[in-house]
Specification:
Structural class: alpha+beta
Number of domains: 4
Helix content: 25-40%
Length: 499
């Protein structure tokens, strides 16, 4: 927390210097002294009073990212005193990253005789305010959306089937960023509303990283087993700054201090198998065998809500199918189809080592694995050094790690798995998730579209899943997230209308 505050103060001081150098002549022309200009925060306060704006806007200076928006807004107001502002000037200001104010301050005013001809009363008359009202409202809307998007709640799209049946491909969800404590942004200079790349290859941020800081840091106590969590992918090699790594969503099946293992496809936590209620949405790979009559795949997909089922072979009068099913799906197929001989899970053999798995096991026979918690002291040996190698490098930044040494764990770690167990790229493949990578909890499916997975851009085949629209996602304490989000939005709306 203290290091984050220190970095914020340094950033705000640099921002203050840029502000002073770009506006000192404009402040002088409208009647303020140089002393008033150089006092941090106070110079913003007196300008808000000058423009008859709510002093609540000064709260934007508490966060480096929102302070940039406030400064750009005030620069627009200052420019309007000397120029009849239009969309062209707004374009110049934004796409010059604010440097357009230096052109106004050092060149435009002098060379266009604005020093002698300025008439503040005329420039502040209602007609001029009315002409520019739409641009100001546009800026207010951008700031309001950005605040909510960055600090409170963010929309996401589910692009893969790793969380079926809980979350489907085409679900548009809202994720609460305050449920596990607000993780403050670590990249102060980035393009708003764009996560990490533009067009898939241009980075949308400058590689300036601030230290990790989470407000109300009770993550260990607040995260419970089987919570669905959005987090940054730990093994993202293209983006090293934590909050710009790719976003993933999985179910947290293992907490710090737990021992986890999978035996014959069954997940065990602290030597206890998953409970029946936890298996409701678990989906894995099965082989189906029928006799004489083939399955009506189209009927099954439409009536039993199975997305992945295909025929894989035929022998004499027997048909074999590959399908991703839940326990409920199996009962439905047996009830509807009398010609089904058997439905068996497809499992890896215990002796097979899966090369796609990060650990020396496979997806159906995995572990046992101890999940480290903050403060643990672990003696490294040949076996656990291989398992914990990545997180030791993450914490110590050392690559030459010796065996028979003691390692004290600095973070809590979590084990994530998708509900679609045989079709999920999760902690079995890339390891544990550090606490500082956790973003928040999904709380609501606000819209859901069923599209052709082979041709997702074919909008003529899109169907809205009305039953999933505005559906609350199964999670603990979701009401707290919704309450806090609603309160925050109400404060911002009041803030906006008090301008």
């Amino acid at each position: 927390m203290y290091s984050y505050i220190f970095f914020s103060i340094i950033f705000l001081l640099i921002e203050h210097l840029i502000y002073v150098l770009g506006t000192w002549r404009l402040y002088t022309l409208i009647g303020f002294s140089f002393l008033e200009l150089i006092i941090p925060i106070y110079n913003i306060f007196i300008l808000l009073k000058f423009f008859k704006k709510s002093c609540l806007w000064i709260l934007c200076m508490c966060f480096p990212i929102t302070s940039i928006f406030l400064i750009v807004y005030l620069w627009m107001k200052l420019i309007r005193l000397f120029i009849k502002i239009n969309i062209k000037h707004i374009f110049y200001l934004f796409f010059s990253c604010g440097l357009y104010i230096y052109y106004i301050n050092y060149y435009y005013i002098i060379h266009n005789n604005k020093i002698k001809n300025i008439n503040l009363q005329q420039n502040l008359t209602p007609p001029l305010l009315k002409n520019n009202k739409e641009y100001h409202h546009m800026l207010f809307a951008i700031i309001l959306s950005f605040l909510i998007h960055t600090y409170v709640i963010q929309p996401y799209l589910i692009p893969t089937s790793s969380m079926e049946k809980t979350l489907l491909v085409g679900d548009f969800i809202l994720v609460s960023k305050i449920h596990y404590g607000l993780r403050l942004p670590m990249t102060p200079l980035s393009i708003p509303f764009i996560h990490n790349t533009i067009f898939g290859f241009i980075k949308s941020y400058l590689p300036i990283q601030w230290p990790y800081c989470r407000i109300n840091n009770n993550t260990k106590q607040f995260i419970t087993k089987n919570d669905i969590i959005v987090f940054n992918y730990p093994k993202d090699k293209y983006h090293r700054i934590i909050d710009k790594k790719d976003n993933y969503i999985k179910r947290c099946v293992g907490l710090p201090g737990d021992i986890i293992y999978i035996n014959d496809g069954v997940l065990f936590i602290n030597h206890k198998p998953e409970k029946s209620k936890e298996l409701k949405y678990k989906q894995q790979c099965y082989i189906i065998k029928t006799e004489y009559i083939p399955l009506n795949i189209k009927f099954i997909k439409e009536n039993i809500s199975i997305k992945e089922i295909d025929i894989i072979g035929k022998q004499n009068n027997k048909y074999f199918y590959y399908a991703m099913l839940t326990k409920e799906n199996i009962l439905s197929i047996k009830k509807l189809c009398n010609n089904v001989i058997f439905i068996k899970p497809i499992l890896f053999s215990k002796t097979i080592e899966d090369k796609s798995i990060y650990f020396p096991w496979n997806i159906d026979y995995f572990g046992p694995l101890y999940i480290p918690k903050k403060g643990d002291i672990i003696r490294l040996n040949r076996s656990n050094l291989y398992i914990y190698n990545d997180i030791i490098k993450y914490e110590t930044h050392h690559h030459n790690i010796k065996i028979n040494t003691l390692w004290q764990v600095k973070n809590n770690y979590y084990f994530m798995m998708g509900d679609n167990r045989h079709n999920s790229f999760d902690s079995r493949h890339w390891g544990l998730v550090p606490e500082d990578h956790i973003i928040g909890k999904p709380i609501l499916i606000w819209m859901s579209i069923d599209w052709d997975r082979q041709h997702p851009l074919n909008v003529f085949k899109w169907k809205i899943r009305w039953r999933r629209t505005m559906k609350i996602i199964d999670c603990n304490h979701y009401s707290l997230s919704i309450l806090l989000t609603s309160l925050f939005v109400c404060v911002l709306i009041y803030f906006l209308f008090s301008l």
